[in-house]
Structure formats: structure tokens, C-alpha cells
What we know:
This protein is an alpha/beta fold. It folds into two domains: 123 residues, Enolase-like, N-terminal domain (Enolase-like, domain 1, 2-Layer Sandwich); 239 residues, Alpha-Beta Barrel (TIM Barrel), CATH 3.20.20. Strands 6, 7, 8, 9, 10, 11, 12, 13 and 14 form a nine-stranded mixed sheet that branches. The protein has a three-stranded antiparallel sheet with strand order 1-2-3.
Amino acid sequence: MKITDVEAIYLRLPQVKEQCDSGQDALIVKVHTDAGITGIGEVDSNPMAVKGAIEGPFSHTTASGLRHLVIGEDPFETEKIWHKMYRGNIYGGRRGAGLHAMSGIDIALWDIKGKALGLPIWKLLGGGFHQQIRPYASSLWGPTPDATRELAKRYVDKGFTAVKFGWDPMGQDEKTDIALVREARKGLGDGPDLLVDAGLVWDAKTAIQRARAFQEHNIFWLEEPLLPDDYDGYRKLSEAVDVRIAAGEEESNRLSFIELMDRGRIDIVQVDLTRVGGFTEAMKIASLAVDRGLPVVNHGFTTYINVAAALHFLNSIPNSFILEFVAEEETTLRDEITKQRIVAKDGMLDIPQEPGLGIELNEEAVAKYRVG
């Protein structure tokens, strides 16, 4: 079997709000083969930068479009192809959008392998740690503390036993920050876990103050309170408070995760398969975390392609325990562009059993939202 083509498909809602909701557009990757098997992947990044990184032409031996590098390769040779892409675009691909682009292709290659062999990806990866996994409802904060309380009630009513709120309006002032967390806890009640995503808004001293204030409301973790390169700030924060500190969604390569774990001393390692280099690199990151006694969770605020990939990944590692599951109530692409919708039952998600990712595109919806 050989790879014959790679498509980078940009989808976008007619109107996109200026808020931290990556479900308003999507970059989908299709990898075609001469056996008639097509794999799909996804990238959560700057969509047009990723599209250029994939579809761009050969420039020179360390700056090539990824499509050029992988056509003609055997899709089963995922490790070899990963390194060929990394080395062939090392000027622009060591971090950020170039490596994000590799992620979409790698996910699609694993989808092809699973389809060809009739096995789910988690089984190819040697997994089987879970029959089901607990999801947490992932949401933006309400526009006010009161609105957040009502959102929290709705998520509990839907059966979620853990809820995360994040980004705006957190970071405006101390009073608002504390009120948001207080009202979220009121809405959830005493039982469910409350996770807080600050959204990169503070310096280390402020984050220490907020973490201590939030402890009264029994938060499970505090996520990304600092800018991603502030590894020394993360260390100061982690060493100063009892609250678990979570981070990693901004990282795009295992060397960055080593910095975050060893220098930043975080407690929860967040891996987004659509950013870190797909399954091939995510498994290495998870192993590094296991060696340090750290749990790994996914990051994903996009489509069911990402959710499915995360289910396969988390079922393939021993240090997973919960899955991010977008619960935003606003209209997004998520519920239209795939034939399957992944739904929690009794507060749990089933592990996919279908070959590959177990997700198919709704081609009519893809055509409807496709840009260009």
C-alpha cells in the first residue's frame, strides 16, 4: 500500500465569534492510498498556516511541504514517516504549526492502519486499560458568575460528574475570579469535580494567590494560569500550593514536555494529539510522564475526530483517568461534520471498538463549510 495524496481541508462557520472556541472552524486532513483506504485526521492550530505546511511545495531539504514528503510512502511505516516529516521541515516544523501539521497526517495514518487491519487504533497501540472512561464537561465560563452557576447546574443535570470552566472573563480582577469559581461550585454542588482553566492570564505570584483562594471551593486542578514559556513560574507555583497544576496544550513536541515536567514541575500533563505530532509522538510523551509518576489527560476543544483519537490514546496508556469532552452549547461544526456523535452515557464514554478511529466524515457537511 502507498500514499497517493494528502488533503488539508479548511472548514469554517459563516460567522466566527472572537472568543476562545476552536469549534468554529476546523482543519481536517485526508490521506489517500492506492488501496482505496482513506484515513482522516485533524489539526487544532492556525488553520491556514497548517494548510500551507501540508500542501506547500518542496523548497529545500529542510523546508518542504509535508504532502510532498509522504506521497509514495507505505502508511504502515508511521515511525519512519514521522521522522521524515520532522527532518524534511525542520526549519519550520520543530515546534508550532509545522509540527501541528504533522499531527493531522500521523492521526490519519493510524486510521488507515486500523481500517486495513480491521482493528481499533488502541489495540494497534497495545492498549486496553479501560472499558469506559470518565469525561469532564469542558466549557467556557459564563459571561458572569451567576451565568456560570446556571451552566454548572445544567451540566450536572446532563450526568457529568466533573466540569471545567475556562478563559474569559477570568483574569479581569480578583473579585471576579473568585466569584466565578465560587458560583461554579454552587452550581455543581459538593459532589462533582470542579476544574478551573485560567487561560494564561496571571504571573506566578498572582497565580499562587488565586490557587490559595480557590482551595476553599475544592477545585480539582488549576490549568494554564501562566504563559507557556514561563517554566520557572510554573515551578514556583507548583511548589507553593497544594492544588494540582495542569498544563501542556500549548506544547508541540516531547522536548517541550520535558521542560514543563522537569523544570515546571506540573502535576497533570495535558496532551493534544492534533498538536503534539499525533499518536506516534503522544505515546512517547505519555511514557515520559509515566516515568515521572504523572497522570496524562487529553486536550481537545474541536471535533469528534479529536475526541475519538483521545479515547484511543487514553486507552493505550496506564496513566490516564479522565477525558476532556467539549460541552459548549453554542452552535459549532462539531455536530455536523462527522457521521458519528460521541455521547456520554451515565456519565461515562465507551471506548471505540470500530476499525481505525471509528469516525467517518459527513461529506455533505464538509462541502457545506469548506473554504476555498
